[in-house]
Amino acid sequence: MSHTPTPEQAAIVDAAAAGDDLVVEAGAGTGKTSTLKLVAGRLGRQRGVYIAYNKAIADDAQRSFPTSVLCKTAHGLAFGPVGRQYISRIKGPRIPAQHAAQIMGIREPVQLEKDRPSIAPQHLARLVGETLQRFCYSAEQQIERRHVPLVNGIDTEPQRAELARYLVPIAQRAWDTEIVPFSGRLRFTHDMYLKIWALSEPQLGADYVLLDEAQDSNPCVAGLVTGQMAQRIWVGDRSQAIYGWRGAVDAMSKAPGTRLMLSQSFRFGPAIADEANKWLSILRAPLRLRGFERLASEVCDQVAPDAVLCRSNAEAVRQVMSYRMAGAPVALVGGGRDIIALAEAADELRTMGATQHAELCMFQRWSEVQDYVEQDSAGSDLKVAVKLIDTYGARQIVQVLRDLVPEDRASVVVSTAHKAKGREWDRVQIADDFREPVATEDNPHPQIPREDAMLAYVSVTRAQRVLGREGLKWVDHWTPFNPAQPSVDELLDASSLGTPEAVALREAGREALSAELTGMPEEQADWDATASPAPCPRCGGSGKCPCDPAALRRWLELTGAGAR
To answer: pLDDT band for position 517 (50/70/90)?
Structure first.
C-alpha cells in the first residue's frame, strides 16, 4: 500500500503489534487486505497463517504477503494432513441418487402423511447428502436434527420431526461407514475432509492467525480459529453476512478480542457512501462508511449499467431474457445451471406428473406448484420463477440461458446480490425485486428482514462511479433522520471499540461525571445510580464508569449525545 496508513489502519497495526486478539469490522471497500499486509509486515518474522475465503484470494495474498505468512483457504490447510489421503475419491465419478440409496440401505419410499405423495428412495438419499453437507458446515461432533434440511411441501412440525427421525440415523451411519473410511463408497467432497480435519482439533503452529471474511465463516472454520493457541485476528463486515442459508454464521459477533474499525472506503465517493449508510442504519451497525473524497460518485434512479444486480435468481433470468430479446449479449454471473434445472423439472412435472428435483419433488401437478406459491408464504421464494416459466415457457428459458456469453464479451452483466459479493463495477443498476415490506392484517407493522437489508447493503456498495438505485429507493421511507450518525444503541455497541469516536464517547462520559456532575440538571445525574462500582474491564475506570451499558445508555439518552 503506497499511501500513508489512515488513523484506523495505524490503530489496528499497533494493537496487533501489542499481541492483542483483534476483531476488525471492515466496511465495503475499506482496504482490509492492505491493512492485513501492514499487520503482517509489522509482526516481522513471526509465523502467520492467513485464511482466505477462496483460492484466488489466497493465491494473490501469497504473492503479496511476507514470506513468513502462509496464505491458504481452510480447505487448503486441511488438504495436506487429511484431504490428500482421499484424493482418489474426491476425483471419483458422481454417484446417481438411486445407487447412493442402495449403499445407504434405503429400499422403500417414506410417506409422512397418507394424503401426500411418498418420498422416493433416491430423493431420501439426496436429503441424506444435504444433511451430511450441513453437518460438515457445523461445529457439532455428531449429526443432529438441526442438520436435516427443510423440504418444500413438508411444512408442519410433526412432519419435519418424523422426517428427521428417519434421516439422522441413516446420515450418521453413512458418515461413519461410507464417508470417513478410505474405502467408503459414497461421494466424497472437499468439505468432508475439512470436517474430518477440524474434528481432530488441529493446531496450525502459527504465532498469529488472520481470518478474512470472518462474517461468512461457517461454524466449522470459526471453531478451528477459536481453538488456536495463537494470536487471532478476525476481519470482516458483519453487515455483509449473507451466506447464513448455506451454513455461515456471524463468527465475528462472538469472537474474543479488541474491536476496531475500518470505515474509510476507497471504492467509491461520498454519494454512494451516504446511500450505503442508510442500510447500515437500518441494520443498527455501529460502523458508518466515509466515501473517498477524490472519487466522484453519483446516485440516481436509472443508469445505463455495466451490471444489473437482482435479489433472486428468477429476476436475474428475467433481466437476461429482457436484454437478449433486445439483442444485447449478456453474461450471468455463476451461469444459469440452477434455473435451467428448475425449468427442466417444471417441464417434467407438466408432462409426466413427477420430478425428482428437490424443490418440486413433493408436487404431482404443476397447478399444485402454482397454488403453493400464491397461497403459502413458504413458497414465496419460488413465485417469480413460476411466473417466468408460465410466461416464457420452460424450454425457451433453457434455450436463452444456454446462449449466454462470457463477461468480457457482454454489454451487460447480470448477477444476484449473493454472487456479486466481492465484485465491483463502475455503473450498477439495482433491479426491482428488492421488495419493500408491506403492512398486512396479520402483520400491521412489518420490518425489513435483516437478510434483505444486508443484501441491499452489499448491492449498493458494488458501484464505484454511478449507482442506479431504482429498486431500493424505498429505503428513504425507512431511514432515520440522519443515517450518518449512529443511534444510542449503536453507540452502545461501539463503546467497546478502539475508534476515535468510541474513545471520544467514553471521554465525554467521564467529563460529564467529573466534579459530581457539576452544572448538570439534577435529573441528568440520576443515571449514575446504575453505574458499576467495580473497576471497568474496558477502560479501567471505577465507580461511575460510562462504559457500563446501562449507565452509558442513561447518560446518552439524557444528554442527547445519541439523538438523531
So the answer is: very low
Rounded distance between C-alpha atoms, residue 23 and residue 496, angstroms: 11
Q: Is the pLDDT reported for residue 561 higher than 50? A: no
Specify the 3-state DSSP secondary structure of 52. strand
Residues 139-198 have pLDDT tens digits of 999 999 999 998 878 878 888 999 999 999 999 999 999 999 999 999 899 999 999 999
Task: Give dist(CA 76, CA 50) in Å, integer.
Answer: 11
- CB proximity list for 325: less than 8 A, separation 6 or greater: none
- The arithmetic mean of pLDDT across residues 273-300, rounded, is 94
Q: Is 129 left (phi over 0), alpha (psi -120 to 50) or beta?
A: alpha
Looking at 1.10.1060, 3.40.1360, 3.40.50, 3.90.640, the CATH number of the domain 298-477 comes to 3.40.50
CB atoms within 10 A of CB 445: 6
Instruction: Give the rounded distance of the alpha carbon of 8 from its chain centre.
Output: 24
Mark 303-340 as b/e (b = at least 16 C-beta within 10 Å): bebbbbbbbbbbbbbbbbbebbeeeeebbbbeebebbb
Q: What is the pTM of this model?
A: 0.75
Domains 7-81+202-264 and 298-477 share a fold: yes
Radius of gyration over every alpha carbon of the chain, rounded to an integer in angstroms? 26
* CATH hierarchy code of domain 7-81+202-264: 3.40.50.300
> Would you kindly state where each structural domain of the chain is located, as residue ranges?
7-81+202-264, 92-192, 298-477, 488-559
